[in-house]
Amino acid sequence: MAVISPIVDISLVALAVVAVSRFLQSKMIDKEKQKAAQTRMKEKQAKIKELMQNTDEKSKSEMQKLQQEMFEEMGESMQGTMRYMIFSLPIFFGAFFILGSFYGGMYFQAPFPVPKFQDFFFLNPLTWIPVGFVLETGWLKWYFMTYLIVSIVLGITLKIKEKVQEQSKAL
After folding, report:
1. How much is the pLDDT for 1?
2. Looking at residue 156, what is its pLDDT?
C-alpha cells in the first residue's frame, strides 16, 4: 500500500520524524544553559576531587554540599530533556506503528546495497557486525538507515549554520 514507493515513503517519514524531533529539541532544550551547567559541574567535580583527599569534617561537609548542588543542577538540566522525550516519543512510536501497518513483513529493493546481519540481536553487540550486503531490505532496516543518515546530515548542516552565524556576529 505504498503511496509513492516503499523506499520513498519510509524515507519521507524518517525525514519528517527527524525534522520534528530537531524542532522540538531546539524549543525544549536550552543548549546554552546546559553548556553553562556542564561547565559549573566540571568545576564542582574538580573541587570535590580535591576535597576527597582531605579527611577533616569541614572538607566532608563542603563535599556533601557540592554534591547536593550538582544533583540539583543535574535535575534542572534534565527537565528539558525529559519534556522533549515526552513529546517526541509518541511521534517516534506513531511513525513506527504507521510504517509497520503499511510495510510489515514486506521486502523491497533498496537503491544501494544495505548491510546484512546474521541473527541480529539488539542486546548482543557481536551480532551488530554485518556479514555482507544485499539489495533487498525491510521497512525497519530502511527506516533506521534513513533516520541515521538524515540525522547526521541535518546535524552537520545545523553545526555549520551555527558556526557561520557565530562568525558573522564576530565581524
Report:
1. 56
2. 94
